[in-house]
Amino acid sequence: MSTVQDAVRAVIAETFGVPPERLSDDTVADDVDGWDSLSHTVLMIRLQNAFGIRIPESVAAEVATVGELVAAVADIAGMKR
């Protein structure tokens, strides 16, 4: 079974065409080519679809690292990281 962390990283990797192992908890948008405000919105939609959740705009705007995004998705989905 995949962890939330693995699943979130997989969605990010697919969205931006990077290997998931290149993503760490400390990775920020500036570390990933093409991760801008528009693609961040696309990523949020993909994560919502993958987890069957709704990520509030305030949360989407606040997450700064992959680790924070994993934590937010896990909290919203009520899952363990």
For the report, how would you describe the main beta sheet?
Answer: none
Task: Return the CATH architecture.
Answer: Orthogonal Bundle
What form results from the Cα inertia axes?
Answer: globular
Number of strands: 0
Q: Beta-strand percentage?
A: under 5%
- Summed up, the helix count is 4
CATH homology-level superfamily: ACP-like
SSE pattern, N- to C-terminal: HHHH
Gyration radius, in Å = 11 Å
The CATH topology, please? Non-ribosomal Peptide Synthetase Peptidyl Carrier Protein, Chain A
How many domains is the backbone divided into?
1
Mean pLDDT equals: 94
Q: What is the end-to-end distance?
A: 12 Å
**Which structural category do the helix and sheet elements fall into?**
mainly alpha
Query: What is the percent of helical residues?
Result: 55-70%
Using the coordinates above, name the CATH class: Mainly Alpha
Domain Carrier: 2-77
InterPro entries: ACP-like_sf, PP-bd_ACP
Protein name: Phosphopantetheine-binding
Pfam family, one: PP-binding
Q: What's the quick description here?
A:
This protein has 4 helices and no strands.
How would the blueprint of this fold be written?
Elements: H1 4-16, H2 37-51, H3 57-62, H4 66-77
Helix pairs in contact: 1-2, 1-4
